[in-house]
Amino acid sequence: GWGLYNDQTTVGVSWTNNVVYDTSAAAYHNHYGTHITMANNILVHDVNGSQTKSEGVLISAVPNKEWNCSADIHHNIIVADGASELFSEESGTPYEYTMFDYNVYFAHGNPTRFPGPNSFRTWQQKGVGNLGGQDNHSVIADPLFVSPGTRNYTVDGASPALALGFQNIDMSTVGRR
Question: What is the reported pTM?
Answer without folding.
Answer: 0.90
